[in-house]
Structure formats: structure tokens, C-alpha cells
Sequence to fold (483 residues):
Amino acid sequence: MIEFRDIEKSYGDHLVLHELNFSVAKGDRVTLIGPSGSGKTTILRLVMTLEEATDGYIFIDGQPLTHEERGGKRVARSKKDQKDIRKRIGMVFQQFNLFPNMSVLENIIEAPVHVLGQSKAEATTRAMELLEKVGLADKAEQHPTSLSGGQQQRVAIARALALDPEILLLDEVTSALDPEIVGEVLGILRNIAETTDITMLIVTHEMQFARDVSNRVLMFDGGKIVEEAPPSVMFSDPKHQRTKDFLHAVLGDAEGTIGTH
Amino acid sequence: MISITTALDWNWDTTWDVLPTLLSTFLKVTLLVTVLSTLIAALLGLVIAMTLRLAPKPIAVTVKWIANFIRMTPIVVQLLFAYYAFLSLDGITIGILIFGIHYSTYMSEVYRAGIDAVPQGQWEATTALSMSTRRTWTAVIIPQALRATIPALGNYAVSMFKDTPFLLVIGVVEMVNAGLIFGGNTYRYIEPLTLVGIIFLLASYPTSLLIGRLEKRLAFNT
Fold:
């Protein structure tokens, strides 16, 4: 579904990702963990085309995303080609990024109506289903600024799902939320993971969530994957010392592991 | 006996004589020029701001250079230049166009600041939703940028309104000119000019209240 081939990303002299190679199969739920600055978020931003790799290629279902190799050269794909692929990808941001000048409903139907060409009635029906799913059907006419952070993030999730994406990117979606409302957002995402086959790429500091939802965990450090394992192994029996140290630090227990529940 | 005419010689008959003329000039010239010029300036300003942001570099640089040139030269010079360069146009038309163009260069800067103030996350959300460039601007960026720019745009409109007496250099009979003509005929200048000042004040004040209300109406959490 997603393939990273020899991806390099640098800002000036600062190398963020180095010789990154990995693939995500359809329906995979992959969690990226690691210290800040390890390049996890950059990976999501590359897939969403918010940034371009310095070198290398990303393929979505075998199709090059932003650049392709033509006659031995790395050339950018046309904006239109990029956009066609991008429509299949949705993203939820740490800071929600809802449009404050639109109502909750308008936020959700914007892309279905103007990008997918759905009728307003059709998009509204679907939007109300999604709002129902995230428990905010009664907030459809309100403006995002009148909602709490947790509610805004739930709307943002509904907005991303309204495009029926095949790939959903979750970029630290609970990091800006108060601890007591993190659970409600994660609950909704668990539900989506259980009831759909959307491929998910998740950057999170919520290790329990990573354990519950993902089938693969990638540990990043210094722009490289240092360890890859299913969550049951990664969280209870990490091999790499760097992973052990990291998990120990974020989980704050002596073993550096979390139990099943 | 030499009598010195001062404001103390205020003559109420003169006041009532000149008032209708001034009010009708205010409506037919001053207000007309202000409203139409503001519309031109607001639209053209947005076009300039978006050109600077979206157009290919050579075009953007040229537009920027022209805008700077217009902003850095006095409006009186521009009025006189246009008046003699386009003899076929009447004074009011010249006035509306020059005020509109001159102030569009100021308003474009206001828009630019408003566009820059839209958070990066909003742009990223439009990309994540695959929104077209057109929808991105019309549905997200401009509505948000506009909210921040309304007070400053309104202030430029008021300032343009107060600049309308410059029109007398190209022979347009706006309020001040009408007052001067009345003075020339009757040798009474104090009453008309005082009234002109009062009319300007009475018109500016409600306008600034209106700008305040518009600002509230454009707020997002309504």
C-alpha cells in the first residue's frame, strides 16, 4: 500500500531521515515511536505531500507519489497526478486544524462536495453518520471554536474520514489534549480500527493505544528504524538497547514494558 | 472703521444658506467618491496581494514595484497627472479611479498581513483534504484573512474619505470646494468651512462605529 524507497530528508545540513526503506501493507496499522526529532512526523508529512523528500521515492499502491524515476533521473510528478493519489489519503493533525470560519458540518462536507463532487445532500447525510459515530451529531451547526479540544479532534477525525481515505495518517492526535479527554479520542480511533480496513500510519506517545491498535511498531531514532516488531514483542521484549531506554523513559516503569489488559 | 472678520461674527443666516449646498455636495460627490473608491481599493488590493503571492516571479516583482511607486508618490500629484493625461475623463471619474488605485496599494499590504496571519495548519489542512487552489483561497484563506483585516481596511476608507478635499486640485466641486465657491460669492468663509469640518466629523464617527460592528459580525464564534 505504501512503500518508502531510499527516502532522504534534510533541512539544510540537518539530516532528518536517512536511507529509509519500509513498506506498509493494505490494512496494516503501523505505529511509529521514538524520541522527538527522530523523523516520525516527517514521514507522515511526506506521505501527505506537506513536504517533499530530498531524495528517494514513495509509492502508493505502486504509483509514485511526488517523484518518479524517468530516464535514470528523479523528476517531480505533475500537480494533478499528485492530487489524484492524495485524495486517497487522510490526515488528522495534532492541532486539529479545523476551519474556524465554517461550521462543524461545513468542515466535514467541504472536501466531499468540492473534491469528490458529491451533492450537498449526499455529503450531509454521510457527515451526520460520521458525527454520530464520533458522538457529536448535536454539534453539527456549531463553530469549531465553541467546542472543547477533544470535541474538535473528534470533528477532525470525522472530516478526514469523510473522504473515505484508504490511508489514514494520525499525527500525535492526542498530544494537544487534556489527559482526561485523551481516552474519548482514542476510543473513537480504536472503534475505527476495529470496524474498517483503513491502512493507518500512527505517530503517538500513547503506548497503550499503540499496543491495542497496531499490528506493527517501528522504533525510530536519528532518522532510522532501529527496531521493528509486533506490539506484543516490542513492548514486552524489545531487543535494541535504544528501544529499551526509550520505552523505559516514556513508560516510567522499571521494566520498560506494559502489560496486556 | 476696519472691521476684522473672525469666527465671532458667526452668521446663522449664512449658515442656513450654505448648509443645503454642502449636504448635497457631500452626498453627490464626497460620499460617492469614497464608496466607489473604497470598493475599487478593496478589490484591487486583494488582487495585488494575491498576485504577489501566486503569480510567477517576474509578474509579482513588476506588480510590487508599481505598487511601491504608487504608494510612495503623493496622491495630489497622481490626481493632477491623471487629470492632464486623460483629458477625456471628467474629474469625478479620475478622482474615483486614482483614490481607488492609490489606496489599493495600502490595502494590499493589509491583506498581505492578514494572509500571512492565517496559521500554517490551515494551509496543511487544505492540502490534506485535496482542496483546489481556488477553494483553498475562497473558502479558507480569504475569509480568515479578511476577519483580521476589516478594521485596518475600514480605517483606510475613513482616511480616504478625509482625503477627498484633494479633489479640488482637479476642479471637482466637492465639499471644501463648494464652501470656497460660496465664500467667494458672499465673502463669508468661516461658516461654510466650519460646517464642512462638522459634516466630516459627523460622517467619520458613525463609520468607525460601523466598522466595529462589522468586525464583530465577522468573528467566528457567532
Remarks:
- The interface with chain A takes residues 119, 121-122, 124-125, 127-132, 135, 139-140, 143-144, 147, 220-222 of chain B (CB under 8 Å).
- DSSP finds eight helices and no strands in chain B.
- The mean pLDDT of chain B is 90.
- Residues 12-54 of chain B form the longest helix (43 residues).
